[in-house]
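Recap from last week: sequence in, structure out.
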Amino acid sequence: MSTDVLTNQNPTPNTKESNASCNLIMCTMSISFPNPPAKCRQAEKVVKDTFDATNKQITVSVNLILEEYTAEIKRLASSIRTFFAENTISLGKNKKRGGTSKVIPASNFFRVQKFWNESRMEFDALAADFISRWESEIRPKSEEALKKLAPTLSAHQQEWFSLSSEDIKDKFSYSFDKNPMAAPQAAMAMKGLTDQMKASFKEELEEKQSLMAAEAHKELKDRLLDVVTKLRNKMNDYDPTSKGKMYDSIITNISKLVEPEGGNKSLIEDLCVGEGEELDEILELADDARSLCLYDVEMLKGEEGQSMREEVAKGANELINKIQGGNTAAEINKMMQL
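Predicted structure tokens:
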């Protein structure tokens, strides 16, 4: 069951501090629920016999718990992971060691906090329902269904069907931890350090946070680049005479990033940790991207949508070049000042 509860129910004001590099909140999110797999030898044999692959290694897995009992919580877990991927920024992707870390720009924390509070309640409700039916319904029916498939179970896997409701409760977990980054100036208040050490720590923190802010800015541009590139490629590759499909997401993946919603700023603006020229650049790119969201996907389909697809592809390509080349008004002004 989830245990981490945010006590502050008031959304973070949608404003930015003067020091953009201090607007990053380190965070971790983890979610898990009971859905253990097991190898199914019988199914593996059927596959090998059907495709004449007796000499090949084929693994077929089945879940120990019937899917009808885990479908809702799997859907929720997927939506939670998607939300955190979209509303946080990953830093350290280019590092060979150390892995990546997730940060939330302070101006976007209100979205994360609201989602956490709502999704946690939904997760807890689904977990409580599962636990209440575990011994009387879910465990016996799952065990019975599994016998028909004759999977090969290890001793550990067999133990699942002897777990009590109290035991299964420990298999549910949804946590969200946050750690606001200290401003470099905080180093000057450290006790036990010489003034020289304090100044050195302050300089080190300033450099580190400046690099993190720069990486966050690039990651944000890459995120916009990714969805716009997919739109351009779809416009170029779509063939109305074949069975090629086009979904609304080709446009909505852009709009949910750049369109203001519910009286708030756009997600891409709230994810921007920079100010001045960096913020101006993001706002300009977002404004250009919004023009691509004016098209209706239905109008882009079929042979009659050919000219409009060409128009969208051209606009998307121009935006791609702008993102990659940095030819925004902010960048041009910066070059003129050099």
